[in-house]
# Entry
Amino acid sequence: MSGGSAPSAHRAVRVKVPATSANLGPGFDTLGIALAYGDELVAETRDEPGATVRVTGVGEGEVPTDASNLVVRSAAHVFERLGRPVPGLEIAARNRIPHGRGMGSSGAAIVAGIMIAAGMLQSDPDSPLELSEDELLAFATELEGHPDNVAPALFGGLTIAWTTERGPRFKRLMVHRGVAPLVLVPSFTMSTELARSLQPKQVPHEDAVFNVSRSALLIAALTQSPELLLEATEDRLHQHYRGDAMPATRDLIGELRADGHPAVVSGAGPSILVLSNGPGERLRAADLVAERHAEWQSLTLAVDTKGATVESIPA
Ligand code: HSE
# Structure
């Protein structure tokens, strides 16, 4: 977090939040990476209670623009949990992360609200407060339900996130520079709630062991040995249970993997993440999609290493 205290009672902050891709194949509800593609928001306190949100870009004319907006609710959650008064807010959001596509848009909205609150609290002229990384993750996870999108959105890079009795925890790792992400975005959407409802309560023991091995291997592949990514992204815990709900995603992943590309469902879908071993392989995957499936949008993205940022700006 950067910036100092605002001189007046009115405070303003600028927040940037990256898109994310969760699961990464075998790492269901645990692994995620941040992608250099995100939303940017400016928030200012105002005298009247409540909130007004002006959205441009993705979600414009669709998402709520009052206090029911997810960014506003997330900011309010932080103030309320800390027993601080919730300020009136004017927010301008420039959104790029597609909604309902498995690129962490709801996690990004939650993180945006939390960072707005964190920035406002830090620059509070009467009683400044700095939130810890653990607090930021705990508040975000309380709202999102699982930490695998919000951890990379907050902290950048590759994150391993897990839950304990004392709350969520995370470990951030640097991704090997040879890993070249490609995100394939379809025109249709997928509800995370529907995707989660398709998961069985129990899975065969051999499938659990299969995913333990691939998840462990995936950490090595993403940080040291990208040549292992095809095997390391195999999964038996979630993708096939959800396949019938997004057959175009399932079929394109099958086609890409048969051609040697480490393709997985991005988050709960329906987008696809290809974790290519180098830019040449990524180009080969993008060419395959452009030639045979031009209706899918290809996003050639770097891994975001900073995570969400907040800075105080003049109010
Ligand atoms: N791990 C989550 C899921 C990511 O696959 O359901 C989407 O929120």
